[in-house]
Amino acid sequence: MTPYIIVIIGIGFILLTYVQRKKYASLLKKGKQADGIVFDFESGGQDSPAYPIIRFVTEKQEWVTKTASMNLPSFKQGSKVTVIYDPENPGDFVINPESAAFLQIVFIVLGCAAIIGGVCLLLFQFYSAKQ
Question: Is residue 14 within 8 Å of residue 111, measured between CB atoms?
Fold first, then answer.
């Protein structure tokens, strides 16, 4: 059963990356760029990571303060970040697209490694059962 779970996790990593990449591509096409800061951090609990709360001003001079959907270790309170936001919905934004690209590569590599590892375990179990 474990190899199947590993393969499913690998597929999940790749699908998550695909969905995020589509969102980034859409925002890069129609989005506006703004400078923001890491205003604070929000944590879901003791064992969950703290996500940065980003604050920036849109071109219409609207303040946006919202928790980001990703966290990178380099984020510290007061750090300056570049955001690309949807002008129709400024709460929909991405942080530092260059950093996100690195994170996407890591997720794809982890996903592929999990799929390959799971398939290898399945093959090993299959050939061990035949003997």
Answer: yes
Six-digit token string for 116: 């390959």
Pick from 88, 84, 94, 97: nearest CA to 33: 84
Read out DSSP for the chain? -HHHHHHHHHHHHHHHHHHHHHHHHHHHHH-EEEEEEEEEEEESSSSSPEEEEEEEE-TT--EEEEE-S---TT--TT-EEEEEEETTEEEEEEE-HHHHHHHHHHHHHHHHHHHHHHHHHHHHHHHHHH-
pLDDT in tens, 64-98: 999 887 766 667 888 888 888 989 988 888 886 66
The order of strands in the sheet holding 50-57 is 63-67, 50-57, 32-43, 80-86, 89-95
Helical axes 97-130 vs 2-30, angle rounded to 10°: 160
DSSP-derived pairing of the beta strands 89-95 and 50-57: unpaired
Q: What is the pTM of this model?
A: 0.64
